[in-house]
Amino acid sequence: MSFALRQHRQITPQPGWVEHDPVEILDNAEWTISTALHRADAGTGDLAALGVANQRETVVIWNRLTGQPVYNAIVWQDTRTSAICEQLAGKGGANRFRTTTGLPIATYFSGPKITWVLDNYLQLERAATNGELLCGTIDSWLIWNLTGGTRGGVHITDVTNASRTLLMNINTLNWDNELLDAMAIPQGMLPDIHSSSEVYAEARGSLAGIPLAAAIGDQQAALIGQACFDKGTIKATYGTGLFVLMNTGYEPVLSDQGLLTSLAYKIGPQPAAYCLEGSVPAAGASINWLRDNLGLVSTSKELDELAGSVNDNGGVYFVPAFSGLFAPYWDPRARGLIAGLTSYVNKGHIARATLEAAAFQTRELVSAIKKDTNTDIVTLKVDGGMTSSDLAMQILANILGADVVRPFNPETTSLGAAFAAGLAVGFWDDLEELSSRWEEGRRFKPRIDSGTREQYLRLWGKAVTRSLGWLE
Question: What global pTM score does this model have?
Fold first, then answer.
């Protein structure tokens, strides 16, 4: 297996604002494709198809005539749309559109971000009405450029990404006129909605002739990469944030526990599969904060060693609500805190509390999914950067009280996009064949008793309660 990786910048113009440079993302995508091919000693003739997996709620607006973005991509973590969301909620509350979209009204989602750009740049509002502007999540931006851009690029997205905009009806799988009107977004800006796995067009440029055959949100791609095709199968991904998804089958399940109802995937003309999801904005971001903002460690490996230098958390609980709390609380006014400090505490305890925070938040999401689906969860498949830490995974198993399974191939998001693209062009036959290719790497079993676990959970709950509503 050959791969290439290149990070792009995180741009934070002011507190609560998070942006990316769309051109930098496109350049990096093209570089990683060519570099991966070079490292594999392969050429474009060796490629059967190309698939795209992406951050789902990050949105780009660009000029269809020039191909240039009119503003930086606004990232899923960004909270600048809080006033727009409060106005949208109105008397109907945050769940005003939940039966249509499966989502609460929150800064997390793409639609209000588009509204913010149009509201703050009047000339763009006029251009949007005149049909000069296109918008979409990162998949749409990449696919439009890779298939020709201003020279006939296709403007599409898939059901998984569209289901995270707060603009798509999850029952009809179409853009909803009531939602578009509420957010004053012209439908002509939006991409056409397609399946996650089908041939959209052939690439142009250096990849000329290669079928572009999959577009899928990163977490749903990981669901496919983890072979979670049966109803009730569940996985958690630990990247910048934390995302727990359960496949709920071919009917949407609306949550009573603060979870999100989204599309899991749609393979060609087959019926769409749905999922329940719990999302947390800070998992790996907490480690980055300790490294970059506090200088407590220099690398993730150093954090792991530091956390392993102590036997427990020393009574410390870290709630990383840097941009509020998502599921199951949905409180944009929550803020992070470290509770339980005494003179006994050292940096090892804080490092361990950082790893434990991801475990506690996973436990909350899994508990919510169990209540919504009346399903007993005995095994959780995991992937993402944090899962390379054996200590973090053992802590997770302890807090969950369930087995945690790390796959042999940790690159499940990329694998899921490749699986979806391969299905579209007949490289693989069906989901059963993909399931046979999934392989267990290591299994972690709980090592603490239920009494100790409940004590940890009780104190974690106290810490979360103190973080809620921090901003007035």
Answer: 0.92
